[in-house]
Specification:
The complex is a heterotrimer of chains A (261), B (290) and C (317).
Chain A: E1 4-13, E2 16-26, E3 31-35, H1 42-49, E4 57-62, E5 65-66, H2 72-77, E6 80-82, H3 95-102, H4 104-107, H5 111-115, H6 119-138, H7 154-167, E7 172-176, H8 184-199, E8 203-207, H9 211-217, E9 220-225, E10 228-233, H10 235-240, H11 242-247
Parallel strand pairs in A: 3-8, 3-9, 6-7, 7-8
Antiparallel strand pairs in A: 1-2, 1-4, 4-5, 9-10
Helix pairs in contact in A: 3-6, 3-7, 6-7
Chain B: H1 2-32, H2 39-55, H3 60-83, H4 91-112, E1 129-131, E2 134-136, H5 138-160, H6 162-172, H7 174-179, H8 184-210, H9 217-231, H10 236-257, H11 262-276
Antiparallel strand pairs in B: 1-2
Helix pairs in contact in B: 1-5, 1-6, 1-8, 1-9, 1-10, 2-3, 2-4, 2-8, 2-9, 3-8, 5-6, 5-8, 9-10, 10-11
Chain C: H1 2-19, H2 28-52, H3 61-78, H4 82-104, H5 109-129, H6 131-134, E1 140-141, H7 147-153, H8 160-183, H9 186-196, H10 198-203, H11 208-234, E2 236-237, H12 244-257, H13 262-279, H14 286-300, H15 305-316
Antiparallel strand pairs in C: 1-2
Helix pairs in contact in C: 1-8, 2-8, 2-11, 2-12, 2-13, 3-4, 3-5, 3-11, 4-11, 9-11, 12-13
The chains are: A alpha/beta (261), B mainly alpha (290), C mainly alpha (317).
């Protein structure tokens, strides 16, 4: 029942190995977290899986098909969606339009009908608008929907990105530090949201520095250090793994968590 | 064979001028991310100020020096009055500001000077030199020597001096540079002054061959920009190669194909090269960081 | 709410076009108005390309040249009616844009600028140098559109200047309507999205290359129609219509007025069409003042004339 599996994935930048021989798999409804110290290659791994970077080694298999190196928009068509560590919001668009753009695959149509504002074009927009409004409600941004996205707080932008990623109705969702920069209340909201989305059958791959959150919601954890996978397994087992503890500042245990900057 | 040599010689001469203008583009781009479309006006100012100073009785070398200093001052003023206040503006707005500056400088030149074509004497006479059956004006040698000297000095400046390394550091990463105590504003001022001076020098050197007038800046900016992009914007060596290549293609096309289509062939080649290498010949490949 | 903003913009533009003649001191002003509208049509296309999609072009006058010379040449060589020649020009421009757009739009920023610049220069050089066909740098005459006499025969009598004022004004309004439609449509959102973040646009499924190409083709058709109208109105055309300076002029108008806004760019076209006319009184100071105004507006109103004014009004209100 594996939805996404990654095998021997690797990439070098200018002779430096950023990620090497990383493999794991994610099933529908499962939350898998990738953790590791800064510079371990987590975001690079995400970029390879989502097609932003071309992997130089290894394979990405999505629902049985080899999708290694496919363009991000092709992967989106196959149900892969993601958020970004350092926000990639459409700054000059309204909050609602950001969420609507997430529905692009459902609302796109002939450019000519959009130019002439034909009934079919207006219908597509109306459907999307309703769906985007629903999603904004779900992440608690409904009241801000007409505001310019750039005017939102950091935490709100993080939630907007999640709403946009969900608008795609993904089968697998890659979340890159969704709770970074959020306060405790916001983090808990995001925590609930992720669990809820997973419950609906979406596979979730998560990079997150908030160890409490990772330990609480993940079924499976993959640990990276200097581009290599050093451990994987259930949260309890991983947090006791000596190799993992060593990777994180000496002897401090992983549950102390905040040492992970 | 003498024919080919002839075309090569004239191509290198024109190319040296393009290379100098392209260098001006590249230096300012490195310091500020601005493509300064007023760059061609400095070439015009170099020629025009030299001519009018010379006509007023100042000896030619002194007049040329005066012109270069004046252009450098105008470059600094342009930076202080128009570019620095617009820091952070959208790229398109910055382009329009420099185009506005170019129209403004042209308008000023037409007012302060006149709308005539002007020429001052060549530095070493006008008797053509014979080289293996081809001919070359001595002033052409001055142009080439000038370009070689500028690139050498600049190379030494970047490789050997602290200030030069500071300029490179700023181009590489402005925030990091300011963290180690480099003032990016000083680097910008310096770049505008040097770029303007180099443009003016090109104007001084080439005027005895091609003449000068108030409206020469547009064509110069166009060719200099194209040469800088051909080599890869932001790379001084790229400016040199891009400029020479552009000059050579023009001269060879004019000689062997058609003089009216010399610009066309140059631009077709630019298109072909950019399709193969979207970042120019020497440019670094940009990568999305997310 | 969004819908009403589109309609409000269109109504304001239409009222301005309709009422302006009431204040014209002489017939000459109909011509100035028509020139504004012709430029307004071209810059509306550039709003789609530069403002929505964020792709620069310094060569769009090349498409204006194709449109203009289609009207100048097709009636003589192909026996086409000038109106059909205008359509042919638009199809040709769209086709050329589609062909060259694919490789060119892979380039970014200033590299795209220099490639489009090269394209524009190629077109203007062909027009200037193939004198046997195009008439060369001196230009050539263009056939009469014939619509005015047709209108007269059904009882609508307009002077030549009035006719062209109306024809170009309606064309510009139609162009504005289409661009505003696009802005709030699925394709328009995708274009604006890829402008802000190409990576994010891709990850939500936007086919970035295809959409950029659409914007390029659309803006080329706008420029082509603008060139055709200019040729038919003047009954004469020179290769300058395709020249580098015309390309720069169009981009300047767009950015000056407000690159992301259709009415803004049209305001830019109006300002920069009128300004040189007004400055001719000052003769040799013309360039000086024009350059100064361009710099000052872009320094102090960096988003362009209209968006900056609107922001200030909102800020106070």
């Amino acid at each position: 029942m594996t939805l996404l599996s990654v095998d021997g994935l690797g990439i070098d930048f200018g002779g430096l190995t950023a990620v090497n021989d990383v493999g794991f798999s994610v099933s529908p409804g499962e939350i898998v977290s990738v953790i590791g110290p800064n510079g371990a290659g987590k975001t690079t791994l995400f970029n390879m899986i989502s097609g932003v970077y071309q992997p130089q080694r290894g394979k990405v298999i999505l629902d049985g098909a080899d999708v290694t190196g496919l363009a991000p928009n092709r992967l989106a068509e196959r149900g892969l969606s993601r958020t970004f560590q350092n926000l990639q919001i459409f700054q000059r668009m309204s909050v609602l339009e950001n969420a609507m753009t997430g529905c692009h695959l459902r609302e796109r149509g002939p450019v000519l009908s959009d130019l002439l504002s034909l009934p079919s074009s207006r219908r597509r927009s109306a459907v999307t608008r309703a769906r985007a409004t629903e999603l904004l409600e779900r992440v608690g941004l409904a009241r801000a929907s007409e505001r310019e996205a750039s005017s939102l707080s950091y935490g709100a932008l993080k939630r907007l990105e999640i709403a946009r990623a969900l608008a795609l109705e993904p089968r697998i969702l890659l979340l890159d530090e969704p709770a970074a920069g959020c306060n405790a209340v916001e983090t808990e909201e995001i925590d609930h949201l992720i669990a809820e989305v997973a419950k609906s059958g979406v596979a979730i791959l998560l990079v997150e520095h908030d160890m409490k959150m990772v330990m609480r919601i993940s079924r499976h954890i993959v640990v990276l250090d200097r581009g290599e996978k050093i451990a994987e397994g259930a949260p309890a087992a991983v947090s006791r793994d000596p190799k993992v503890i060593e990777a994180y500042l000496g002897t401090q245990s992983v549950e102390a968590g905040d040492a992970v900057g | 064979m003498p024919e080919l040599l002839q075309y090569l010689l004239s191509g290198v001469t024109v190319g040296a001028v393009y290379a100098l203008v392209a260098l001006g583009f590249t230096l300012i781009y490195n310091a500020s991310d601005v493509v300064n479309f007023a760059q061609g006006e400095f070439v015009m100012l170099g020629g025009m100020i030299t001519f009018f100073a010379w006509q007023a009785g100042i000896p030619l070398p002194l007049a040329a020096l005066l012109a270069i200093l004046a252009a450098a001052t105008i470059g600094v003023l342009l930076n202080k009055l128009a570019i620095e206040p617009a820091r952070g503006a959208p790229v398109a707005s910055l382009i329009i500001i420099t185009i506005g500056a170019s129209i403004f400088l042209r308008g000023s030149a037409q007012l302060v000077f006149d709308k005539q074509l002007h020429r001052f004497p060549s530095f070493s006479g006008d008797d053509p030199l014979r080289v293996f059956g081809a001919t070359m004006l001595p002033q052409g040698l001055w142009v080439i020597a000038g370009a070689v000297a500028v690139f050498l000095v600049l190379w030494l400046f970047f490789a050997r001096t602290l200030t030069g390394k500071a300029v490179l550091a700023t181009a590489n990463n402005r925030i990091a540079a300011s963290l180690v105590g480099i003032n990016p504003n000083h680097m910008m001022t310096l770049s505008f002054a040097v770029s303007a001076a180099i443009g003016a020098l090109a104007g001084v050197l080439v005027t005895p061959i091609t003449l000068t007038s108030y409206d020469l800046g547009v064509a110069m900016a166009l060719k200099g920009f194209a040469a800088a992009m051909l080599g890869g914007m932001g790379v001084p060596a790229g400016a040199l190669v891009g400029g020479l290549l552009l000059g050579l293609i023009e001269a060879l096309t004019a000689g062997y194909v058609s003089s009216v289509y010399k610009d066309a062939v140059a631009f077709i080649l630019i298109l072909v090269i950019l399709f193969a290498r979207p970042q120019g010949l020497f440019g670094r490949k940009a990568m999305d960081r997310v | 709410m969004r819908l009403s903003q589109k309609h409000l913009t269109l109504i304001v533009l239409a009222v301005l076009v309709a009422l302006a003649p009431a204040f014209f001191p002489s017939n000459f002003y109909y011509r100035i108005g028509a020139l504004i509208f012709v430029n307004g049509l071209a810059v509306t296309g550039l709003v789609v390309l530069i403002g929505f999609a964020g792709q620069i072009s310094l060569g769009h006058a090349g498409f204006a040249g194709i449109g203009a010379y289609a009207c100048a040449l097709a009636p003589g060589y192909l026996g086409l009616h000038p109106g059909l020649a205008m359509l042919l020009g638009a199809v040709l421009s769209g086709g050329v844009a589609w062909l060259i757009g694919r490789p060119i739009l892979r380039l970014k920023g200033y590299y795209l600028a220099v490639a489009t610049l090269g394209f524009g220069i190629l077109v203007s050089m062909v027009l200037a140098n193939e004198a046997k066909i195009t008439g060369g740098p001196d230009g050539r005459e263009v056939a009469e559109l014939g619509l005015r006499s047709a209108l007269a025969s059904i009882g609508i009598g307009l002077s030549n200047a009035q006719f062209w004022y109306a024809a170009t004004g309606l064309s510009m309004l139609a162009g504005a309507w289409i661009a505003l439609n696009l802005h709030d449509s699925p394709s328009g959102r995708a274009l604006r999205a890829l402008h802000d973040s190409e990576v994010a646009a891709r990850t939500v499924g936007v086919d970035v290359a295809r959409l950029k190409l659409s914007a390029f083709v659309i803006s080329a058709v706008y420029a082509s129609l603008s060139g055709s109208l200019l040729a038919l109105m003047n009954r004469f055309i020179t290769p300058d219509v395709a020249g580098f300076l015309h390309s720069i002029e169009l981009v300047t108008m767009t950015v000056f007025g407000g690159v992301g806004s259709v009415p803004g760019a049209i305001l830019g076209a109006a300002t920069l069409t009128l300004l040189p006319q007004a400055l001719t009184v000052l003769q040799q100071y013309e360039n000086l003042i024009l350059g100064l105004i361009m710099m000052l507006v872009m320094i102090f109103m960096r988003e362009g004339l209209l968006p900056s004014i609107m922001r200030r009004l909102k800020g106070k209100g």
